[in-house]
Amino acid sequence: TIAQAQEIFRQKLNPEHQKRLAAITCEEALLRVANAIALCDPDNVFIHTGSDEDMATVRKLSLEKGEEKELAIKGHTYHFDLPEDQGRIVAQTFYIVNEDEGLSSLAKKEPRQESHNYMKQYMRGIMRGKTMFVGFYIRGPVGAHSAIPAIEMSSSTYVMHSAGLLYRNCYTDFNKEVARRGEFFTNLHAEGSNRSEDMPKARIYMDRSWQTTYSSYCTYAGNTLMMKKGNHRFATDCALYKFPGKELSEHMFITGINGPGGRITFCAGAAPSGCGKTTTAMAGDRFVGDDLAQMWIAEDGTLRAVNPEVGIFGILKDVNREGDPYLIKCLREEGTEVIFSNVLIDENKKPRWEGDGEEIPAWGNNYQGQWTKDMQDVPMSHPNSRCTLKAEAIENHDKARNSDPKGVQIKVITYSGRDSNTMPPIWVARSMDAGVAIGASIVSKATATEMGATGVKRQPWANAPFVAPPLPEYLQAQFNFYNSDALKEKPVMAGLNYFLTHEARGGSGKGLLGEKRDVHVWLGWLELYANGDVQALETPIGMIPKYEDLKKLFRERIDKEYPESLYTMQFSLYIDNIVDRIDMQTEAWKQEENASERLFRVYAEQKE
Ligand code: SPV
Ligand code: MN
């Protein structure tokens, strides 16, 4: 009861923090906080108001506890996760399910009773001797249609520090925003002993009924900062069941591209983890978000999107001056608060990572201990090492638009993955159905962001790891959304592929066809195409750019020559590969019960 909750607060919170909590009037929220305290039994509880002072306190405590350590540049810190905790621990991540709950074929599940047994055994008393931090946030601008408030509770100062950089604080608006939206998400994390031998105990549970996540015995942000992917999963549920056909919750960046005459066109793009979302987002002229997008159909028939986040939890591998000039500035110069995780720390307390474009250091320390240059087969940093910082630090971030509850109008949707040998760098769907099919057909080589992942996998909409309902339901929701009569201004839907290799196209060179900054050209072309300023060539898979237009854009946007021979290699359609791909997708989707005939029609037409 609320009386019992108040008693718990009297026992665990000092008077100042009791006063802070008194500002929260939503009883359900108070009950959940009290339950978390009763379960984890921290020595005391810190109510985070989001003030600059509280932000500074959490950061200071993190340094004192040793969860973070200082680097040479002021404002920069680093954090190491355990060697077993360097990416999302998919095998230890479960949905808590009720009997008969239908779930995606890709999701792991555990019956409610078993998860409760786990919590009794491992989470009861897990915060003894520690402080629990409680913060109030909102996933989107205050007042935005799809913004959902969330509570984050953790005993980790690193997690709370990250939350402060990545999310909008909502302590003052929490009651109002819960009333407006009619719901909120809850997240409880405890790092436990934080020892390798205890990693098998690590669990992440998502309880869709209570919109609550539990995470324990781990610290990697993707496993602990559950406002990110845990709550993205709940947001996907909301989109599908609360606002069917009107809302989507996507694993997409949002960025604006300048066109002629001051025009700005916004694009949202999906790609699996580690396939270039952050780079693409920042290659736009007005960067809004790099990981997640809440999209909805507005009253005026436009497609709108907001970013649930205000920060970046970006992959560092291959981030260098050439490909990521704005990001690297924040990482190599003073002026921005940054947390580096799982990098190498060299003798000058400088963070280093694979592909940072600088001379390889002789030695340093990483999450595994000491590293030296002669350890040839051991990378100096983990391939999923990350940087956490506020998006506003990035020079081309559009803070005003990322604060606007109306969001931005999306005119271009892209889908991409790591595809070395089949699809061209860019192709545009001829219909909404064909666009949905591009999303449904993403394939990608495994990256380091999922622990233990290998091989080439299907990654529908790059969102499959975060979709709880059976995938055919999600597929149907996509068809309904994009074909909706309410959506009067249909977006251009396109595929993008940066990962074609010379080898796959019979070239004499090595590695990838093209370079990172070419993305400026692909985005620039989409901007022109979406506004009717360039024509395209029609092919069975959709529309592809004409050589002359690309040549001009290469010169204008990145001052580079674009030989016709390269265009031919990139845009020739390798029919056998494409047909194989269509067959593979058709087979895979046929394994799913109730997969939409609409999708099979698109595949059949293209194959024909
Ligand atoms: C991703 O891997 O897609 C990320 C980081 O954005 S994580 O929080 O691990 O999901
Ligand atoms: Mn992501």
From TrEMBL:
UniProt keyword Cell cycle, yes or no: no
Every Phosphoenolpyruvate carboxykinase GTP-utilising N-terminal domain range: 33-239
InterPro entries linked: PEP_carboxykinase_C, PEP_carboxykinase_GTP, PEP_carboxykinase_GTP_C, PEP_carboxykinase_GTP_N, PEP_carboxykinase_N
Enzyme Commission number(s) of this protein: 4.1.1.32
Domain Phosphoenolpyruvate carboxykinase C-terminal P-loop as annotated: residue spans: 248-608
Cofactor needs: Mn(2+)
Keywords: Decarboxylase, GTP-binding, Kinase, Lyase, Manganese, Metal-binding, Nucleotide-binding, Pyruvate, Transferase
Coiled coil, from the record: none
PANTHER family: PHOSPHOENOLPYRUVATE CARBOXYKINASE, PHOSPHOENOLPYRUVATE CARBOXYKINASE [GTP]-RELATED
Family under the similarity heading: Belongs to the phosphoenolpyruvate carboxykinase [GTP] family.
Record's protein name: phosphoenolpyruvate carboxykinase (GTP)
Organism taxonomic ancestry: Bacteria, Pseudomonadati, Thermodesulfobacteriota, Desulfobulbia, Desulfobulbales
